[in-house]
Structure formats: C-alpha cells, structure tokens
Amino acid sequence: MQHLNISSSSFTILNTKAIAPSVVLGLCCLVGVPGNIAVIMLIVSNYKRENFTLKLMLNLAVSDLVSLISLHLDLFNSPWLAAQPCSV
C-alpha cells in the first residue's frame, strides 16, 4: 500500500481573514432575526390603523429582517449575491 505524503501547509482549512467578520455577522444574524421577528409579532398584535409610528416601526423591522436574511445568505458566499447585480 502506498502512503500519500500530503503536507498540511499546502491546504488551508480556515481563511483567517474571514473568521472575525463571519463571527460578527453570525452573531448579528443570531440576535437580529429572532429580535425582529418578536418585534413584528408584537406590532402586528397591537396594530391600530391610526397609529403612524407603529406603521413606521413595522416597516423598519421588516426591512431589517430582510437585510439580515440576505446578510446570512451572503455569509455563506451564495453565488447569486456575489454576482453584484448593481454593477451598471
């Protein structure tokens, strides 16, 4: 049986420059997504048509949730977000 001599120095398992941003973005997603879902549920349960402030807070929570979900997808290097759709 032939032994393969593969040195571990030629393979990089973890990209050390991407660890800190990945941890920070991961924590933002872990805290932000459940928090925004809780805010959306609270606002929807107490929603009144004449309260403009609640409408603005609901809009902010939904947009923040959408941006956090897209940030979560970008964290795992999704190919459709890496294509830079605004490169005109």
Automatic annotation (TrEMBL):
Residues 35-88 form the G-protein coupled receptors family 1 profile domain. It is found in: Membrane. The chain crosses the membrane at residues 20-44. One of its GO terms (cellular component) is membrane. InterPro entries: GPCR_Rhodpsn, GPCR_Rhodpsn_7TM. Gene3D superfamilies: Rhodopsin 7-helix transmembrane proteins (1.20.1070.10). It comes from the Eukaryota. Keywords: Membrane, Transmembrane, Transmembrane helix. GO terms for molecular function: G protein-coupled receptor activity. This is G-protein coupled receptors family 1 profile domain-containing protein.
